[in-house]
Amino acid sequence: MSKIKLITIDIDGTLLSSGQQVPKENIQAIRQAVNQGIKIVIASGRPLSGILPWLKIIGVPKTDDQFVIAFNGGVIQTTSGKLIAKNAIDYNGYKTLQNFADKQNAYFQVESLDGSHTISRLIPKEAQMENYLINSALQIHDQMPEKVEFIKPMINGSQQELDRLISIVPKKIEKNFNVVRGAWYNLEFMSKKASKGSALAILIDHLGISSDATMAIGDQGNDLSMFKVSNLAVAMGNAANEIKSKADFVTKTNNQAGVGFAISKFAIN
């Protein structure tokens, strides 16, 4: 009898193949797990709007008793949209990050519960791709309104540009924010209280589930905080060696339905 009661799964590079499809083996295993009563929790940098299409495909219903970890842990919601917890950055924090981006001539936007926001007039293709993938409207302002909820500020750009920027992030920013690469085209700045791992801990407590009954599957640095909280940490076969070294098990790649393989191996009776 499986003791796994909750599985957190990243989307890009994990649930999805490199062609942005869900392998049928992943769908089959997830649906079996759901039928067993296991909570399948998508844990993603995307907002709920960018997660819902995949929930439909994998068979996780829109209800008040199913959950997502969105914005890299900045928000926990039910799949029906009910807010469980939220951690945002204040306006002064936003200004610090905007100033850093401006000094580097980098594009900067903020993702919030009501969409994406920027004060830039030049939108790079990487930002256009980001907003398309998360199904989010981009609102352009002359000046950023203080009423915006600064849940996930980010710089969008080429991999080469972001490799350079992450190497020169000021120590003050590193001290006051969680700085993560959610994807090759994103450099994200989260509240110190916000991470996939901290959100998972809150959700475990909310549900009254022991961490011993949890499994986390991911492929990027922003998934490592989940690995620390979850009893069974599973790295994708396509993950970097640094991620694999922190895992309890390395599954197949995202193009080989590694999520379905891990769920079948550890969770399905």
Notable features of this structure?
alpha/beta, eight-stranded mixed beta sheet, six-stranded mixed beta sheet, 11 helices
Task: Describe the protein in words.
With 269 residues, the chain is α/β, with parallel strands linked by helices. It has 11 helices and 14 strands. The strands form 2 sheets. The protein has an 8-stranded mixed sheet with strand order 5-4-3-2-1-12-13-14, with helices on both faces. Helix 2 (24-35) runs parallel beside helix 11. The longest helix is centred in the middle third of the chain and has 13 residues, at 91-103.
Proportion of residues in extended strands: 15-25%
Radius of gyration based on Cα positions: 18 Å
From the N-terminal CA to the C-terminal CA, the straight-line distance is: 6 Å
Shape: globular
Task: Give a quick summary of the entry.
With 269 residues, this protein is α/β, with parallel strands linked by helices. Helix content is 35%, strand content 23%.
Mind sketching the topology for me?
Blueprint: E1 6-9, H1 11-15, H2 24-35, E2 39-43, H3 48-58, E3 67-70, E4 75-78, E5 83-86, H4 91-103, E6 107-112, E7 115-118, H5 125-133, E8 138-140, E9 152-156, H6 159-166, H7 171-176, E10 177-183, E11 186-191, H8 196-207, E12 214-218, H9 224-229, E13 232-235, H10 241-244, E14 249-250, H11 258-266
Parallel strand pairs: 1-2, 1-12, 2-3, 7-8, 12-13, 13-14
Antiparallel strand pairs: 3-4, 4-5, 6-7, 6-9, 9-11, 10-11
Helix pairs in contact: 2-11
